[in-house]
Amino acid sequence: QVQLVESGGGVVQPGRSLRLSCAASGFRFSSYGMHWVRQAPGKGLEWVAVTSSDGSDKYYADSVKGRFTISRDNSKNTLYLQMNSLRPEDTAVYYCAKESTVTNAFDYWGQGTLVTVSS
Amino acid sequence: QSALTQPASVSGSPGQSITISCTGTSSDVGGYDYVSWYQQHPGKAPKLMIYEVRNRPSGVSNRFSGSKSGNTASLTISGLQAEDEADYYCSSFTSSYTRYVFGTGTKVTVL
User: Fold this and answer.
1) What does B30-65 look like in DSSP terms, one character per residue?
2) Is the N or C terminus of chain B more exposed, i.e. has fewer CB atoms within 10 Å?
3) Interface of chain A against chain B, CB under 8 Å?
């Protein structure tokens, strides 16, 4: 069965960096686009970034462009999100999500990892 | 890219039907049939309920249905049950360079 397990969250000071990981199993990781979606405490879902199956195409939300970098290692079945210059408004649960090919929907989600940006 | 607009809350009694709207623009909802809907219970990850406007993934109850007219998509839950009480989000592919957008979210309450 498909499993997505995020890790790397924690408490970090404003301006610092953090890298999230998402370990995938149960499907051919290298064949699917992968996304990061976040949810601030008590707020709605916000799409963050996507990488194509081979990592050649990447897109970002305006709110993180220039600060966050999405990447993947298909040999390790792992998705990453490098977050630099973190701000308090980046505080959220970060989910990785698998993209359903053709339908552009997020068909599987991880359980999420909490990032808290605070001094 | 602004979030798609959803009503903040919708409520209904058990057995009734409710409809949640999701309004965007011709650059997202109106321009593509890539609208999907997600259910999220408190403290849980979102779950895909509808994809490509009206299709249900395997295992999702046929009480959930989707449609679209112009720039507005809709999710209808028929035969409302207590377990349907949750937050619901729409999402759409967009021609914007950001590629994807979510709705503002709707809290469904079963009275």
Assistant:
1) TT-S-EEEEEE-TTS--EEEEBTTTBPPTTS-TTEE
2) C
3) 35, 37, 44-47, 50, 59-62, 95, 100, 103-112
